[in-house]
Design goal:
RNA binding, single chain, 7-stranded mixed sheet, EC 2.7.7.19, Hydrophobic Seed Protein, Hypothetical protein af1432, alpha+beta, 475 residues, Beta Polymerase, domain 2, HDIG_dom, RNA repair, elongated, RNA-binding, two-stranded parallel ribbon
Length: 475
């Protein structure tokens, strides 16, 4: 809840910051208006830490550059055509933008850049009222023409103008509504939600890379589930990630199974909790969070209603991995992220066989080998995938996973499991069997690797003997 007195005191602190004071003095001496705008003002009022120094001014780009040069160590003007000049002041990065009064053609989200003359007009063209506040400096006057303070107090997201017009100008703002809902723990107001539902198809003019970037920012928040619910409720997610709403499987009166959509959201939340508990200082793990959200997307395509009321989802892990790869590629995720998420989705069921009966050391080795570099993520995902309300079952699964992690640690100490290799390399295999490089050498290598996984270290002589026996048996 916003405490206005405390919020205003934090605005005073923001205005007194050495970077802000330095820039404000330079512009005031030149007779130019200057204001801190958007996120820094919002976050100061909410008591959140901010490292952004975003300013807006009535000065045009050339004059901004001239004014900022004497008080900065470096400047850049890559955003000059949009009115933005960047600089480094007292070791901090700042951006200063001329008042804008852009117009849009509705065909692309690229505006026709037009510079404005007033701060108030500039603020009304921004995405949400809570981001449409400014603090004039050095005067320290709060400017809030669209009711941003009231919306902060109410915990509400609302556009400064008619949402149909705002989202029509820039459809990416619809995705930002979901992201800010999670980031600020705010509710999106009904008129805004309705506009998103009505205009969701306009997201198609936004590039996949931009959509992906907003999805990543949403997943990096502490509770992305709130934003995902906004996306599903409005139907916007159908435009770029339809596999998620497809998890809301219909349940008839004769066949019963858990709600896969709600289960997936719970897994996402639990994965984030475990991620923070195990790696408290690490950055948000987006590949893990994507895998948690998508781990069951193969279920709709593999659901089978069985006689007697049972429901099966055979091989939904394999199907889900294929679907995840295709979707992430369409959203232009990099190859590394796509590979990690796909592998986790494919492996997420592997552990549950362990819980049903003790694995041999060989099975544990294979589990580690197949997970590879993603073993820690797989630990988290598998633990998070337990959402049963049956406390006894949940405790049994947790104990089983404690056991397998303990065995993995023991095997690592004994055999350096992360670097398991056959006792004979490819060159030695060729010498022993009189082969040239080719497919048969690879098959022999895999035979020896399985031998190592099944029996551990047997020694080079025994490995060579077994290799010759295997080769002879092949004829």
């Amino acid at each position: 809840m916003l405490n206005m007195a405390e919020g205003l005191a934090r605005l005073e602190e923001l205005a007194a910051h050495p970077v802000v004071a330095t820039v404000a003095r330079a512009f005031a001496e030149a007779g130019r208006d200057l204001a801190i705008v958007g996120g820094p003002v919002r976050d100061a009022l909410l008591g959140r830490t901010t490292h952004d120094f975003d300013f807006t001014t009535d000065a045009r780009p050339d004059e901004i550059l001239a004014l900022i040069k004497p008080v900065s160590s470096v400047q850049w003007d890559v955003g000059r055509e949009f009115g933005t000049i960047g600089a480094r002041v007292k070791g901090e990065q700042v951006e200063i933008t001329t008042y804008r009064a852009d117009s849009y053609d509705g065909v692309t989200r690229k505006p026709t850049v037009e510079f404005g003359d007033t701060l108030e007009a500039d603020l009304t063209r921004r995405d949400f009222t809570v981001n449409a506040m400014a603090l004039r400096v050095p005067a320290r006057t709060l400017v809030d023409p669209t009711g941003g303070v009231e919306d902060l107090i109410a915990g509400r997201l609302r556009t400064p103008i008619d949402p149909a017009v705002s989202f029509g100008d820039d459809p990416l703002r619809m995705l930002r509504a979901a992201r800010f809902s999670s980031q600020l723990d705010f509710t999106v107001d009904r008129e805004t939600l309705d506009a998103i539902a009505d205009l969701r198809a306009s997201l198609q003019i936004v590039s996949p890379e931009r959509v992906q970037a907003e999805l990543v920012r949403l997943l990096q928040t502490d509770d992305p589930v709130r934003g995902i619910r906004v996306l599903v409720e409005t139907g916007l997610i159908e435009e770029f990630l339809p596999e998620v709403p497809a998890l809301r499987l219909e349940v008839d009166e004769h066949h019963h199974h858990k709600d896969v959509y709600e289960h997936s959201l719970t897994v996402l939340r639990q994965a984030i909790e475990l991620e923070k508990a195990r790696h408290p200082d690490a950055a948000p793990d987006v590949p893990l969070r994507l895998a948690a959200l998508l781990h069951d997307i193969g279920k709709p395509a593999t659901r089978r209603l069985e006689p007697g009321g049972g429901v099966t989802f055979h091989h939904h892990d394999v199907k889900g991995a294929r679907l995840a790869r295709k979707r992430l590629q369409a959203l232009r995720f990099d190859a590394a992220t796509t590979t990690v998420v796909t592998r986790l989705v494919e492996l997420h069921l592997r552990f549950f066989g362990y819980a049903e009966g003790a694995w041999t050391d060989a099975a544990v080795r294979r589990y580690v080998r197949d997970a590879g570099a993603e073993l820690e993520r797989l630990h988290i995902l598998t633990r998070a995938d337990v959402t049963t309300r049956n406390k006894r079952k949940a405790q049994r699964l947790a104990s089983a996973y404690d056991d397998i992690e303990g065995r993995i640690s023991a095997l690592r100490e004994q055999e350096e499991i992360d670097s398991i290799r056959p006792e004979l390399d490819g060159n030695r295999i060729q010498e022993v069997l009189g082969l040239k490089p080719g497919r048969e050498v690879g098959e022999a290598y895999r035979f020896l690797l399985d031998l190592r996984l099944d029996e551990g270290v047997v020694g080079e002589d025994e490995a060579e003997k077994r290799l010759r026996e295997w080769w002879a048996a092949r004829g």
